[in-house]
From TrEMBL:
Catalytic machinery residues: 251
Highest taxon of source: Bacteria
Keywords: NAD, Oxidoreductase
Broadest EC class assigned to this enzyme: oxidoreductase
Species for this entry: Streptosporangium roseum (strain ATCC 12428 / DSM 43021 / JCM 3005 / KCTC 9067 / NCIMB 10171 / NRRL 2505 / NI 9100)
GO molecular function: aldehyde dehydrogenase (NAD+) activity
Domain Aldehyde dehydrogenase stretches: 18-484
Entry's family note: Belongs to the aldehyde dehydrogenase family.
Assembly and interaction partners: Homotetramer.
Descriptive protein name: aldehyde dehydrogenase (NAD(+))
PANTHER family attached to this UniProt entry: ALPHA-AMINOADIPIC SEMIALDEHYDE DEHYDROGENASE
EC code(s) of this entry: 1.2.1.3
Length: 511
């Protein structure tokens, strides 16, 4: 019997809505869960519920909220295999990667347990006697969090954990095609003892979410929007928030470059490019977009890379594979559009393109009725090609050449994204020059473009985001506001900049 999941608002199920089937992309005829999609009013209602619950949650001392976060971490850790298996089944992520994703939640909870005792403000010296100045971090209120499904449990935790720790309430709208994984994570959070209404799960499509969010912003029941997804949708959310004088936390797409210098360890670079390009079937915001390889090692790198791609295993994500299927039918359709960007001046060096089927197998693997696609490496991309300039969410990597580091940096910045980047070199000077010149929010040296740690800031610039950062202490700036307080105990009105004692120097003094 197919499992049905629904929205949960104020601790109560909200079962109304159109049905949506979340499928297993490794076997598209298998329905993982039937999802009831809520309407715009349900989303707005969840925000009202959250606003009511937030007032009491904010009064809970931060160290106590930290203990709740610690409990979430322990619950996720105890259920790691079950949650990872569900992620693998619902979105086709290889099980080893899914386990790593679940570990990211635990790491995030472990970090923010301590932040419950470190929501520090400062005491500031006043320019006047008998007066003290203070600063405090205060919660923003209600955070509406909208997440993609390629990391259906780890990335949401980057928002949910610090938002809740800081005293906010949350309305979370996950991707509908990963709703079963999201519902499981919600249940783990709820089991930690969160009061009803502090965390609300709304399962909805994009149009209902947009309409409901607009209503909530107008009503003043949402005070922060967190969004992970495409640049196109991020722009629309940014415009909507701007009309209500809010600054959203936007984590958007990427066209992440990897520069391979002439002194690079080519085997290491190939290993990094293989994982960055085709791990999660190239469906990460940090996936490798273009390898920018020095002309003197281009042929050697390309030969090694092509052989590595040919030898990699694609198949059942429950097994030991480089990648499994694409996430969902809509991503498969969009990826086929990207394959149409391959031009006559390009050279596909990796073999067949398109879906893996009985008519177009990959070795002995014929696709097993899943959304499996051949990995594609395209040599000869040019700076004006769509393949070079635009994000291609899927298993395709472009390759181009450069002659000087300055040229490589210019090529790396040209698409206008700014999420992740990588350089392979044994020369520290090259590494630091690349870091100084690249516009990306994250730089890897001799490592792939993918790979976040829970205590390091994650986020991008340009088309990849609005400069907001997740993870570590830096994300607290998204979910708290600074409040300043001055306390005058002099017994009289002291006017700033006016009633200030002045010590007069003799500025004409000379030795």
């Amino acid at each position: 019997m197919t499992h049905e999941i629904v929205s949960v608002i104020g601790g109560k199920q909200a079962p109304n809505g159109a049905a949506y089937d979340s499928i297993n992309p490794a076997r598209v005829d298998e329905v993982v869960a039937q999802v009831r999609l809520a309407d715009a009013e349900t989303f707005a209602s969840a925000c009202r519920t959250a606003a009511e619950a937030q007032r009491e949650w904010a009064r809970v001392p931060a160290p106590v909220r930290g203990r709740v976060i610690a409990s979430i971490g322990r619950l996720v850790e105890a259920n790691a295999e079950s949650l990872a298996s569900l992620v693998t089944r619902e979105i086709g992520k290889p099980y080893a990667e899914a386990l790593g994703e679940v570990r990211e939640i635990v790491d995030t909870c472990d970090f923010f347990l301590g932040e419950g005792r470190r929501l520090y403000g400062q005491t500031v010296p006043s320019e006047m006697p008998d007066k003290s100045l203070f600063t405090f971090r205060v919660p923003v209120g209600v955070a509406a969090v909208i997440t993609a499904g390629n990391f259906p449990v780890a990335v949401p935790s980057w928002y949910l954990v610090p938002a809740l720790l800081s005293g906010n309430a949350v309305v979370w709208k996950p991707a509908e095609y990963a709703a079963a994984s999201a519902h499981a994570l919600y249940r783990l959070f709820a089991a930690a003892g969160l009061p009803e209404g502090v965390l609300n799960l709304v399962l909805a499509d994009g149009s209902a979410t947009s309409e409901g969010l607009e209503t909530a912003l107008a009503e003043g029941t949402v005070h922060k929007v967190g969004f992970t997804g495409s640049t196109e949708v991020g722009r629309r959310i940014g415009e909507l928030c701007g009309r209500h004088l809010q600054s959203p936390c936007l984590e958007l797409g990427g066209k992440n470059p990897m520069v391979v210098m002439p002194d690079a360890d080519l085997d290491l670079a190939v290993e990094g490019a293989l994982f960055a390009g085709f791990g999660t079937a190239g469906q990460r915001c940090t996936s490798l977009g273009t390898v920018i390889v020095h002309e003197s090692v281009h042929a050697e790198f390309l030969g090694r890379y092509t052989r590595a791609v040919a030898a990699a295993t694609i198949g059942d994500p429950a097994g030991d594979v480089l990648c499994g299927p694409l996430l969902d039918h809509k991503f498969a359709s969009r990826y086929e559009e990207y394959l149409g960007w391959i031009q006559p001046h390009h050279t596909v060096v990796s073999g067949p393109t398109g879906r893996i089927t009985g008519d177009s197998p990959r070795g002995d693997f014929s696709g097993d009725g899943g959304l499996y696609y051949h990995p594609v490496v395209v040599d000869g991309v040019r700076p004006d090609d769509r393949l070079f300039l635009e994000e291609t969410f899927g298993p395709i990597v472009g390759v181009t050449t450069f002659s000087t580091l300055e040229e490589a940096v210019e090529l790396a910045n040209r698409p206008g994204y700014g999420l992740s980047s990588s350089i392979y070199t044994t020369d520290p000077k090259s590494a630091f020059r690349f870091r100084a010149g690249i516009g990306a929010g994250m730089v890897s040296v001799n490592n792939s473009t993918s790979g976040a740690e829970a205590h390091l800031p994650f986020g991008g610039n340009g088309k990849s985001g609005n400069g907001s950062r997740q993870s570590g202490m830096w994300v607290l700036d998204q979910f708290t506001r600074w409040q300043a307080m001055n306390w005058d105990y002099s017994g009289r009105l002291q006017k700033a900049q006016m009633d200030v004692a002045e010590i007069v120097p003799d500025l004409d003094f000379r030795l």
